[in-house]
## 1
Amino acid sequence: MKKIFKIGCLGFIALIVLIIVIGIFAKDKDSSNDTTSKSNTTANSVETKGTSKEDAKKLAKKGEELQVGDVVFKVNKVTTTKEIKDGNYLSYSPSADGSIFLVVNVTVKNAGKKMITTDSSYFQLLKDEVTYNPSTLITTSGDYFLYEGINPGLAQTGNVVFEIPEDMTGFLLNVQTGFWGTEQGQIELK
């Protein structure tokens, strides 16, 4: 009787181990099918991405309005300078040799139903594969985008300052609707 009990216990343990092993292999097979399915879906969305009307609207030129989600962006003016002065007698100069400030004057309008917040970190300059973030030197308010709220139907105009190499041109301004950049668009700065 003890022998039958031992064989039964060992058989039961073997059955549990077998079920676990089958479960692991089945899970791996499902994961690889999901990965294949996801990569096929991604490939299909990449193929159709360039042809949709929505994506065509995500690129604008200077002076044109670009709506990204519930936010409308418009680049009014682009200038360069080697020095920025504020009303408090402070002066800012580029921190690197051979660089200048690119000052982008932007109007941001809230086309949604709730207040939005925006600041200079919601903008980036793109040049080929290179990304430029706004200068953190400018700490005064006034004409520069700092963290502020914009109520529905209202707009705010301000400057975003980037430090760039002196001889570089042909940038795109990347704009986004929030801190995480879930919705983005680009404006040519020619």
## 2
Amino acid sequence: MLPNKRKATEAILATPNKKPRIPSYKPSKSSIPTSMRDQPTTYPWDSYQDAIVVNSVEFSDMQQRVGAEHYSYMLSCQKHYKHICVGFDEYRYNGLKIEDLPELDDNDDDEEQDLVQQENLDPTINTTRPPDPPPSHYAYPHPIYQATTSNPAIPLAILRIAQKNLSSISFDSAIAHLPNLAHADPLPKLTSNISPEDIKYKNRDNAIRLNVAFLPEFYNDGRHALGYYTLSQASSSNSSPMNARRRMVGACLFTPCTIRDLEVYNLVKFMYGRKHHGVEGIKSVGVRQGRWVEKDVVEDWDEWSLMVKVVGRVWQVRLLLLMGGQEDGNTAVDDWV
């Protein structure tokens, strides 16, 4: 005989489970090992969030707990986890309390907006589609300025120029993942009276060294190419004989730009201050301690050719894919140069 409804209901509601007290762990900076504080990556306890969800189905004491209640219970019973983030903001900021994060200057957005307003957009330039590069690297005749940097302010300035000159593409993700900047760090403060190279930054032990390149009059509409990229050497264990002497392009971003764009963001230095010489009077772009690489100098040919291929082939293919182009025989991703 089936039990009556009253007794069944009483059996279920008579002894409700007591909700466990969830520990509220809010680490301060002092509780984080020194070796981990400045790492531009996630902290080890971030992976425990997934581990708790996966392990929760492997415990036997779960018949009376389901959904959010069961998840909360599992948070409280994992005694072997030293650090547990129980709040979204705490997890988002790698275990740091929000009040421990660097203070943001409320004037940052206003100052960057002032820079944007200084950009005089040429009405004859179409920013909704990328300009065309030279048909081949042999057809490009100009020297290229090359430098390296770890300062995140320089790629940020380049990205700001890209937002103007490639207006149909969103660079929000690239700005959110700026090289050599931790997730919780504020963006460098770009101003109209200081070069991005002179903006102070934290020099990390595992900082990425970016190659910065400026290619004068690279595009068919007369604009220059400016950007950054990383290279890695092919290892003998995972590369084909054809790629044994080649290098692979990692991070890569280039944008068309004008001399005015470079001036607005303080990325250009002229010889003897003579701006009227145009490209011919440029001493450096982005980073002062760089050099001009000549096409017709034998010792420079390999590096000169490599940079033209990075911008004219590797970046061009990535740009087409970013704009929704389908990968085919003509747009296959080939990052070897």
## 3
Amino acid sequence: MFRANLSLRRAAGFTLIEILIALAVFSVLAVIAYQGVARMATTKQVMDADNRKWRELTVALARFDEDFSQVANRQWMDEGGTTQAPVRGSAGAIDANGAQLELVRFDGGQLVHLGYRLREGTLELLLWPTLDLAPRSAPTALPLLEKVASFQVRFLDAGGQWQLAWPQGPSAGQLPRGVELVLTLQSGETITRLFVLP
């Protein structure tokens, strides 16, 4: 009778070896599960960052499209009282503010003077308080797109030729037929957009 109870008690429990094997199997499964979750989390972070990058790029390009579709053929005066073309730009800075592209556009029935510059990897929108500038006028700089490696612009003249700077000679009082923007991101992508002016 005593021996039967003892053998029943032994049959109902686990040996130390069985417990160690179960723990080892559980540990292996936990490591595999953790690696899978870690990979999923990393993939999600990469996808979120990629989605954010393309969303911000889309917003920036929409801003350019809106500006060029509303461009106004109206000259303006800079801080020194010199008359400037409605659209002007170059591969490098064209004024003391570092702008590479400036234009005049309609905004709610008013004329607005704005520009763009690349500064420390961020493409910035420059907004001036008035169309014709007073001495020492400074624009408000708003970040438009981050992690930009280069920002290039060129202009299509009336003869169908591309110019790296605008205005050009006899075209000084005219709008270009089109503007091409080339944005190179720090992640390596290059985006080229052509905007036809009205």
## 4
Amino acid sequence: MAKQVEKPEWTRIAEAFEASGQTQREFASARGVRLSTLQSWVYRHRRSAPSRAEAVRLLPVQVASTPEAPESQLEVVAASGARVRFAVGTDVGYVARLIAALGR
């Protein structure tokens, strides 16, 4: 039978995941927690948190010029390998939400 985990413990784990910058799969593997269990804890934590705007996390970037990308476009490559191209001047908040959604 699995060990019963108290709310303060799973809340701390969910908060640690949110601050980690890792995918749920990476975090669960590193902590020895089942992915489905972590997903449940993160879901419950997000539901119990007071409604707030999701903070934008900034990540280091490398700016490179490529022949196939015109200078009026930028390309973001997510850790998953997904590539997103958007026009220079696109709303940064929109791009951050899009990249965050791709990372889930």
